[in-house]
Structures are given as structure tokens and as C-alpha cells.
């Protein structure tokens, strides 16, 4: 921890970032002991300036975070904890503490859009609103959903063979939507899919 430059109060700013989506979750502070505990336990440890004490993220709320990596900036005076969150990071219940826009218009990333679509599909399965296509798929069950995944995959292949870029994008979007519905029907979180990709990527880097 000797490379970390703490301020006059013995603190360093810490950005908490979702390891999968790269979304910024929280800006907080840590002292040397909090950083050490984070590295040793792979749990998010911070320092509360208001309470003047160490705190383990999620110890009370249950919204814990598993730390994948601790990164330090080029000047050594700020850190990033890349985490896998088990619930919202913000005390308001929002995924991120940065959920309000002060100026301009926030553009959702591709991962944000998939996360939002996954959440909408999950809510559709709970509410089952009448007339919604997603409701129809859940009512028909896994056989119908699998059939649609197969049909859309075939459409993607046809679009690619026809060298039709616009059609390929459209059919790929349809395939992704139906795949997300299938994952929800099977109760497989999309983060499990990205987790497999991350493991494979890490394995290739180690070779």
C-alpha cells in the first residue's frame, strides 16, 4: 500500500465500478486499513467521513460487493474498486449513486441497454401485462421461446449471407431479445453469461 498517496486526513478517493458493465456505482473514500481489508478479503471496505469509522459495504443492507480488482491511477492518489454487486449500490435503491443528470443527456451504453432490457423482461414475467408480446412468450413456455430463438438465429444467418448490414443488425436485436427472454425463463442472469466471457478472456491473457 506504499504506492497509494493518502491526503492530509489519511484518505484516498475510491471509485466503485461494476466489473461487468463498467458502470460507475459510487464515489467514496478509504483509509489505509480499508484498502488493506479490501485486498485481503475481496470485499468492499471504505471509510465513512461522517461517522469517522471503517465500514464494510453491504454489512447492514445485504447489498454486498465482491471485489475483482483494485486499480490505482497514474499519480497514485485515487483508486478504482472493480466489483460484482449483490444488489443496488445506492442507499436510495438505485443501481448507481449517479442516477441523476445535472446537464446534457446521458447516453446509455450497450451494457446499460441490455441491463435495462433484462430488468424489463424480468418485470414482465412478474406482472404479465395483458397484450404484451413478452407475456405471450412466457405464457407459451420454453418450447415456444426456444423456437423463436431458433427462428431468429436463422434470420441472422440469412441476413449475413445476403450482406445486408441493416437487416443483420435488426435480426441480431430480435435474437438478443428472445435470448434474454429465454435466460429469464431459465432464471439465468445475463451476468452469468458475461462472467463466462470474462473468464475466457482472462484465460487467454494468461497464455
Automatic annotation (TrEMBL):
Cellular component aspect of the GO annotation: cytoplasm
Q: Provide the E.C. number(s) assigned to this enzyme.
A: 3.5.4.19, 3.6.1.31
Residues annotated as region Phosphoribosyl-AMP cyclohydrolase?
Answer: 1-113
Its predominant location is cytoplasm
Kindly give the InterPro entries that the UniProt entry links to this protein.
Answer: His_synth_HisIE, HisE, PRib-ATP_PPHydrolase-like, PRib_AMP_CycHydrolase_dom, PRib_AMP_CycHydrolase_sf
Domain Phosphoribosyl-AMP cyclohydrolase: start-end pairs: 27-99
GO biological process terms on file: L-histidine biosynthetic process
Instruction: Recall the GO molecular function terms of this protein's record.
Output: ATP binding; phosphoribosyl-AMP cyclohydrolase activity; phosphoribosyl-ATP diphosphatase activity
Taxonomy, superkingdom: Bacteria
Enzymatic class:
hydrolase
- What does the sequence similarity comment in the record state about its family? In the N-terminal section; belongs to the PRA-CH family. In the C-terminal section; belongs to the PRA-PH family.
The protein in question is named Histidine biosynthesis bifunctional protein HisIE
Per the UniProt record, the source organism is Planococcus maritimus
Q: What is the gene called?
A: hisI
